[in-house]
Backbone:
């Protein structure tokens, strides 16, 4: 007899006037006989159950008890549906769909339509328009490894394109800035590591299990060392890039200039990723300051031009 099923039945009965045993059996995928045994257990636990005979009958909790013991307000249920909907848009799962169905079971029948409309008014979709579809498959595989404490192996390509084979103990999946990351203990490097799933290939969940180590579930943040690497650069951009720069720099760091152009103050790290980002903007973006960053952009443009001149 599952305690979570008993709790769920109590929650449903507290929110509804009555519901049939057959309906409850369908919701929890058990037989009506099992539901009746659960109801008897709930009654013995001190929660007064009332049965309503007839065609439109069912099972309920005494109204006087419900007034005192109601668990969730309609606003609470709306919030639960919103949260579950966001998770479901990111990780497709039968468990989440079942949870959504159970939470909807808490809504009084006459208010189901209104609550569903309200919970759908906000939607957060982290899935990309385009991209590596293997990432979502890897997420599902890693979820299995997490629940069963199984090792995972994969090939990894770092930011510089260097490739390596890894065997890890998975501890947590993180979705940050629309990218999936795996926090784990790397057997190869004998230390905790973070891997970006878009750079993972040939992922396999191994049959070997591991005993979990002590793991710090703190938020994934920019390290102090990386923070020290940031400098602020001054850009002159065309108005067509303004919406993009709002995402990178924030509205407060974008100032009107003239001729439909804007000045942008952007946090910048002097590596290939950030320089390539500036180059991708083409003639719509000019680095004004500092001088050494401007000169490096010019050097990279000349190198690119040299390739095309010799081909």
Residues:
């Amino acid at each position: 007899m599952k305690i979570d099923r008993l709790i769920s039945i109590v929650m449903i009965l507290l929110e509804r006037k009555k519901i049939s045993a057959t309906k409850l059996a369908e919701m929890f995928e058990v037989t009506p006989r099992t539901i009746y045994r659960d109801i008897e257990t709930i009654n013995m636990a001190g929660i007064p159950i009332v049965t309503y005979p007839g065609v439109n009958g069912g099972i309920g909790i005494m109204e006087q008890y419900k007034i005192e013991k109601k668990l969730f307000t309609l606003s609470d249920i709306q919030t639960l549906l919103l949260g579950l909907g966001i998770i479901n848009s990111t990780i497709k799962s039968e468990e989440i769909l079942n949870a959504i169905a159970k939470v909807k079971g808490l809504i009084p029948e006459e208010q189901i339509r209104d609550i569903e409309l309200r919970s759908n008014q906000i939607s957060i979709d982290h899935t990309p328009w385009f991209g590596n579809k293997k990432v979502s498959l890897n997420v599902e595989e890693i979820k299995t490894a997490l629940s069963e404490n199984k090792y995972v192996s994969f090939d990894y390509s770092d930011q510089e394109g260097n490739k390596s084979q890894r065997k890890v103990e998975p501890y947590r999946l993180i979705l940050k800035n629309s990218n999936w990351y795996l926090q784990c203990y790397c057997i190869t490097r004998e230390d905790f590591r973070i891997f970006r799933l878009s750079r993972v290939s040939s992922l396999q969940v191994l049959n070997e299990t591991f005993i979990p180590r002590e793991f710090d579930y703190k938020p994934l943040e920019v390290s102090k060392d990386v923070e020290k690497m940031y400098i602020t650069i001054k850009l002159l951009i065309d108005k067509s890039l303004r919406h993009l720069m709002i995402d990178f720099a924030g509205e407060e760091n974008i100032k009107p200039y003239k001729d439909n152009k804007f000045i942008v103050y952007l946090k910048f790290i002097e590596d290939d990723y950030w320089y390539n980002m500036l180059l991708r903007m083409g003639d719509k973006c000019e680095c004004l300051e500092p001088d050494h960053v401007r000169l490096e952009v010019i050097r990279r443009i000349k190198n690119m031009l040299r390739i095309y001149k010799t081909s």
User: Anything to note?
Assistant: Residues 291-310 form the longest helix (20 residues). The mean pLDDT is 79. The longest strand covers residues 163-176. The chain is about 45% helix and 25% strand.
